[in-house]
Amino acid sequence: MEEYNFFVGQEFPDVKAFRNAIKEAAIAQHFELRTIKSDLIRYFAKCASDGCPWRIRAVKLPNASTFTIRSIDGTHTCGRNANNGHHQASVDWIVSFIEERLRDNINYKPKDILHDIHKQYGITIPYKQAWRAKERGLAAIYGSSEEGYYLLPSYCEEIKKTNPGSVAEVFTAGEDNRFQRLFVCFHASIYGFVNGCLPIVGLGGIQLKSKYLSTLLSATSFDADGGLFPLAFGVVDVENDDSWTWFLSELHRVLEGNTECMPEFIFLSDGQKGITDAVRSKFPSSSHAFCMRYLTESIGKEFKNSRLVHLLWKAAYATTTIAFKEKMAEIEEVSPEAAKWLQHFDPSQWALVHFKGTRFGHLSSNIDEFTKWILDARELPIIQVMERIHSKLKTEFDDRRLKSSSWCSVLAPSAEKLMTEAISRASIYQVLRSDEVEFEVLSADRSDIVNIGNYTCSCRDWQLNGIPCSHAAAALISCRKDVYAFTHSFTVASYRNTYAEGIRYIPAKLEWSKTDKSSMDDNILVVRPPKLRRPPGRPEKRMCVDDLSREKHTVHCSRCNQTGHYKRTCKAEMINSIEQF
């Protein structure tokens, strides 16, 4: 504590520096401070403990802002015990303590603030005080939540100004223009999706944790190398059926304006009713499937059995109905309750063998990967979340464009690897030609029929994944066809088209032409925050709406045939033992 020892004649740059120093000393040395006189030219305080003679007096030097200590009387005779808190440890003081830490780590938690203050100063502050200090500190560094909503119209204009062809719109509700929804889709994302991505769209939402309630909705896809490609995103005050219908309506409008004929897409989601109905309404010719990552995580949490998760993945990837039925039978053998639970999910919406169309090898969406981009920014104002996404998009587009410029193969690396393996295995097959397009391919343990005109193989790998399987490769090589000519979605050319258009730089908010409140007129949109504030405590877990109405599995005892408990907790066994005794 030597750095907090004062002496007569000690000088400080100004009165504020002296006040901060005396407050730090009081907290560090565990004594309460009572200020007797404090203004711009003098400061007089004493120890607040009864009977303690310690006093300090400081004054401002003439013709300067410097403050100097004139006298220090007595020494502390108090117990100096402030372990349960300290009056000088105000929210403002905590903000000054955590500000640099917050700049380095946005997710600096209140419990960590409590720990660090206790470790350094030996005092305990209330959790709520630490939480308020963090909220105030974030506002000091990144701006307030209210300012974030106020700047949204200006930010949308900057997006459209710097990235022509982009869509950025903010929607309000009520006469006082409360924030309701925001939709953003950059021109580079639209162009890349239409001209190079796989026709797969993942849908999902993540709760934002700023001062006001809101949810980030997003639509993502896959590039030719299987990488995450964010297509569009939006923020809504409430996630419900209406907000998903609105989001997909905006997405449909964007795609319709940039394609001559709307393609058929495959939408992947957690299967909540609002998304399913919105896809059916806005994209009637497209397919909708369950995200397998969501489905396997759900069955794992429901039945706490890793073998069930493994078998479900095997069933999903099965390429024949026989193999699918075998895995489903194994699931029922392991847990009849799990098999019954799975009946709520139509296999045509998650199993490859029952899905109508090509999945291009993707059974899960990459929404979780996208949400990782903004996980550490969820507590920031909405404008900061948008800027985080824009910054990440710009970096990824630039890096991937540069990376692909050195590729010399026909296919993107991940597809090139699969093709090389298929060609290698094809070398040991025997091929019998039936006609111009149909072949029988014989391997050591099976026979497969390949039709190069329809891009099909009886093993179903070709039509399910979009890349010629080893049987197809053998047939194509036997008739001297270029195997690579039968793969269109995974080419390096498609990958380069995906990132051909760059995400342009958006100036910092200080450079924006902020609207002057004194010059506002009726045509200027002033966005105010939603009325609902985020309640204190841990937010509720986001779940599929259908989970609420889905029947929960009931545990069953194999000893007494009753429900509600397992064999090892069966009370009937205990009663029988007592009676026998």
TrEMBL record:
Keyword set, alphabetical order: Metal-binding, Zinc, Zinc-finger
Alphabetized InterPro entries for the sequence: MULE_transposase_dom (IPR018289), Transposase_MuDR (IPR004332), Znf_CCHC (IPR001878), Znf_PMZ (IPR006564), Znf_SWIM (IPR007527)
Boundaries of every CCHC-type domain copy: 557-571
Pfam families xrefs: DBD_Tnp_Mut, MULE, SWIM
Domain SWIM-type: 439-480
A GO MF label: nucleic acid binding
PANTHER family documented for this protein: POLYPROTEIN, PUTATIVE-RELATED, SWIM-TYPE DOMAIN-CONTAINING PROTEIN
Protein name according to UniProt: SWIM-type domain-containing protein
Higher taxonomy: Eukaryota, Viridiplantae, Streptophyta, Embryophyta, Tracheophyta
